[in-house]
């Protein structure tokens, strides 16, 4: 099939040739290929200014990232065979990495499927489509997922803010099967009750799997504070690994209810407490009451969602880490994490360094961590690397 051409301006092909997959609207030669001639989701062949093809992409003329490359082979037909091959490759990789069907099955551009995220919760697939180009292939994707995985249910979450920018529906859609009344997943030898339909993102955050396991192994006999705990992934694992006491703090009643159910599932309910509170206010209360913890996990949601929010978000991260260090026992353990792509590892490093110096604490980095292997990083797309964490030992001033 011959797709219409999309021409780039002179010298605007360098990033694509280096491996990136995005075309921005200001890089398009709109004299030769007017963007208004394309509909959202149309397939095109991207060409450099000399007319040399660079690959097949889908377009949306109404957004900043106006094209996303699907294949570098300009004669590729984007249809059933293409999607089956990409999904099969993603599945093969995850089955090599994990013994049980609990993982992120597709991670967008890293798996050659920009605009698509799929989390596998046993027999339930939770799907996020964030672009009009991928939305056009939704029915085909469902059919292929049924063919490859025989799921009990396929749910399109549709609550991502990127869908709004692409003028897509925000209503969730159960595209296949039926959701069980209760859904339990397994991670790090623990079982967790999750809510796929109403929960955040796809319903669970697999990305911190390895970091949670590492933290849990270091918390025996400790008093642990799990901040922004969501459904208890950090705290419950710590409780199972021998932590003496665990307090989970979150602003969501429903998330804490799931965490409490999961604590009972794993037999650690007696050592767990669940507190509904704003984390900033809770930390201030602990400081005023002179209460301290042996180990603290600080894993907030993305506080910098857009580049223009960097200054305010950076200050929020700084305040959180500063407050957490003030309620950490001497010789304590702090895990500080960020899932904001716009906050670099170097930024978080500096926040921890300066916060510790400000209150005269001696801080050491024991280890650092990123996202798990089911969230693979594309070497040419820094946007696919978003998660960072530091494991810190904190003592009094030397």
Brief account:
The chain is an alpha/beta fold.
General description of the model:
- The chain has 398 residues and is α/β, with parallel strands linked by helices.
- It has helices spanning 14-17, 80-97, 132-135, 138-149, 161-165, 209-217, 233-240, 253-265, 279-288, 310-326, 345-358; strands at 5-7, 22-24, 43-47, 53-59, 65-71, 102-107, 116-121, 124-129, 153-156, 173-177, 183-187, 190-194, 223-227, 245-250, 272-276, 293-298, 328-338, 361-369, 388-396.
- The chain folds into three domains: 5-71, Archaeosine Trna-guanine Transglycosylase, Chain: A, domain 4, CATH 2.30.130.10; 80-181, RNA methyltransferase domain (HRMD) like (Transcription Regulator spoIIAA, 2-Layer Sandwich), CATH 3.30.750.80; 184-396, Rossmann fold.
- Helix 2 packs across helix 4, helix 9 (279-288) packs parallel to helix 10 and helix 10 (310-326) packs across helix 11.
- The chain is globular.
- The model has no long low-confidence stretch (mean pLDDT 96).
Kindly list the characteristics that best describe this protein.
398 residues, Archaeosine Trna-guanine Transglycosylase, Chain: A, domain 4, Transcription Regulator spoIIAA, Rossmann fold, five-stranded mixed β-sheet
The number of helical runs is 11
Q: Name the strands of the widest sheet in spatial order.
A: 15-14-13-16-17-19-18
User: Could you please say which CATH topology of the largest domain applies here?
Assistant: Rossmann fold
Instruction: Using the coordinates above, name the CATH class of the largest domain.
Output: Alpha Beta
The name of the CATH architecture of the largest domain is 3-Layer(aba) Sandwich
Domain count: 3
Give the C-alpha Rg: 23 Å
Mean pLDDT: 96
Strand content: 25-35%
Q: Structural class from helices and strands?
A: alpha/beta
Largest sheet: 7 strands, mixed
Order of helices and strands: EHEEEEHEEEHHEHEEEHEHEHEHEHEHEE
Total number of beta strands: 19
Report the uncertain regions.
none
Give the name of the CATH superfamily of the largest domain: Vaccinia Virus protein VP39
Instruction: Tell the overall outline.
Output: globular
């Amino acid at each position: 099939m011959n797709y219409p051409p999309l021409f780039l301006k002179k010298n605007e092909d360098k990033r694509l040739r280096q491996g990136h997959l995005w075309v921005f609207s200001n890089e398009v030669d709109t004299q030769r290929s007017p963007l208004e001639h394309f509909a959202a989701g149309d397939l095109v062949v991207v060409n450099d200014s000399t007319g040399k093809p660079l690959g097949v992409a889908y377009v949306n003329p109404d957004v900043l990232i106006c094209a996303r490359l699907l294949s570098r082979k300009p004669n590729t037909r984007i249809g059933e065979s293409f999607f089956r091959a990409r999904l099969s490759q993603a599945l093969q990789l995850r089955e090599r990495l994990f013994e049980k069907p609990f993982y992120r099955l597709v991670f967008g551009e890293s798996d050659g499927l920009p605009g698509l995220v799929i989390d596998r919760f046993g027999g339930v697939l939770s799907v996020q489509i964030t672009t009009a180009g991928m939305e056009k292939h939704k029915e085909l994707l469902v059919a292929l997922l049924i063919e490859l995985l025989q799921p009990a249910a396929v749910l399109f979450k549709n609550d991502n803010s990127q869908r709004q920018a692409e003028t897509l529906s925000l209503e969730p859609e159960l595209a296949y099967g039926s959701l069980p009344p209760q859904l339990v997943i397994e991670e790090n030898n623990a079982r967790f009750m999750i809510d796929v339909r109403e929960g955040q993102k796809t319903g669970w955050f697999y990305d911190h799997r390895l970091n949670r396991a590492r933290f849990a192994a270091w918390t025996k006999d400790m008093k642990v504070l799990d901040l922004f705990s969501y459904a208890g992934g950090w705290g419950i694992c710590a409780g199972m690994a021998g932590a003496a006491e665990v307090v989970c703090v979150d602003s969501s009643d429903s998330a804490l209810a799931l965490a409490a159910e999961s604590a009972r599932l794993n037999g650690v309910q007696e050592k767990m407490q669940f507190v509904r509170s704003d984390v900033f206010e809770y930390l201030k209360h602990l400081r005023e009451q002179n209460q301290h913890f042996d180990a603290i996990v600080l894993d907030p949601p993305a506080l910098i969602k857009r580049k223009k929010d960097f200054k305010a978000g950076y200050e929020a991260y700084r305040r959180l880490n500063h407050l957490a260090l003030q309620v950490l026992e001497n010789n304590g353990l702090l895990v500080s994490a960020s899932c904001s792509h716009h906050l670099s590892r170097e930024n978080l490093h500096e926040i921890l360094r300066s916060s510790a110096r400000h209150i005269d604490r001696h801080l050491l980095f024991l280890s650092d961590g990123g996202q798990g292997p089911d969230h693979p990083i594309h070497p040419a797309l820094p946007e696919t690397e978003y998660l960072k964490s530091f494991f810190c030992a904190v003592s009094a001033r030397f």
